[in-house]
Specification:
alpha/beta, Quinone Oxidoreductase, Chain A, domain 1, Rossmann fold, 2 domains, seven-stranded mixed sheet, six-stranded parallel sheet, 26% strand, globular
Length: 338
């Protein structure tokens, strides 16, 4: 490195996209177990704007503690610049990607350089570029931990029971609500990879995109309510969640499951009466799982859709775009000089 400072986005207060400041800050030092990554691309995710606006949509007991100023961001793809002495498995020059320190808000990836726990990184798949790798980390791992393998024993702040993915063998029917979004388009593809029959719910213009990803059926939520037409579904993965998630009870067969990605509100007695399991989890950083997902990205089994890119300095504009919704895939920040 030619300098001990770097450009980064920082928050000094909560608020709208206007509080994202592009500033000169020190390059982070390395702690044991960490590598320094020169960022090429940074993924944008809902927790980034939860942090920015003060996490008002999260239950108070689930809000992580942090101090201002803070660099937002959890997802990064880039090149290893330095390695702590105790780190094995990564070397200077390696291309890596990862979801860092989640569910804390200490990822600090909206920056030119990022100190990353080596255990949270995987080698970037050679078959995709840094933009797509950065777009895959949180959303891809969320879909993986909901549908394929939880991979940790940490309790979710949203439920007492440990989340357990359900088998998605051939013959199972999976409905993905919000299928064109970040988590949704990964969930669709992973369910197809497991052999499931997938019903994708999205806006009408998204049908060709979702069909291309493998959707067997498509429901346009702008013209019909998905829960009124879908029947005998084994699993609904609702990437929207919230107070309306239980409307899908009428679509799920007895013994089926509802997985709200953003914690859902539902009547537990009604779920028990219908023999429906409602379950969720909180995605956690996991380099080993990311390597498994990376193999699917590398051979084209799973694709990353990019809904737009913005230079790091234009993080405000990226958050403004995110607030307008209807994004097909992921938004990503690109880092100048990388």
């Amino acid at each position: 490195m030619s300098s001990k400072t770097m450009k980064a986005i920082r928050l000094h207060e909560h608020g709208g996209p206007e509080v994202l400041r592009y500033e000169e800050v020190p390059v982070p030092g390395l702690k044991p177990g960490e590598v320094l990554v020169r960022a090429h691309a940074v993924g944008i995710n809902p927790p980034d704007w939860y942090l920015r606006d003060g996490m008002q949509n999260l239950p108070p007991e689930t809000r992580p503690k942090f101090d201002f100023p803070v660099i937002p961001g959890t997802d990064v793809s880039g090149v290893v610049e330095a390695v702590a002495p105790d780190v094995d498995g990564f070397a200077v020059g390696d291309e890596v990607f990862g979801l860092l320190r989640f569910p804390s808000f200490d990822g600090s990836t909206y920056a030119e350089y990022v100190a990353a726990p080596a255990a949270h990184l995987a080698r970037k798949p050679a078959g995709i570029d840094h933009v797509r790798a950065a777009g895959a980390a949180m959303s891809g791992l969320t879909a993986w931990q909901f549908l394929i393998e939880l991979g940790h024993d940490h309790p979710s702040p949203f439920q007492e029971a440990r989340h357990r993915p359900v088998p998605l063998a051939p013959g199972a029917t999976v409905l993905v609500n919000g299928a064109a979004g970040g988590v949704g388009h990964f969930a669709l593809q992973l369910a197809k990879w497991q052999g499931a029959h997938v019903i994708a719910v999205g806006a009408g213009a998204q049908e060709p995109f979702l069909r291309e990803l493998g959707a067997d059926e498509f429901i346009d939520y702008t013209t019909v309510r998905a829960e009124e037409v879908a029947r005998d579904v084994d699993l609904v993965i609702d990437t929207v969640g919230g107070p309306t998630s239980s409307r899908f009870f009428q679509s799920i067969k007895r013994g089926g499951s509802l997985f709200p990605v953003f914690f859902g509100e539902y009547d537990a007695d009604e779920a028990a009466r219908l023999q429906i399991t409602v379950s969720g989890t909180q995605v956690r950083s996991n380099g080993a799982q990311l390597a498994e997902l990376g193999a699917l990205l590398d051979d084209g089994t799973v694709r990353v859709a990019i809904g737009g890119t913005f230079p790091l300095a234009q993080a405000r504009q990226a958050h403004e775009r995110a607030a307008r919704g209807n994004i097909q895939g992921k938004l990503v920040l690109t880092v100048a000089g990388s």
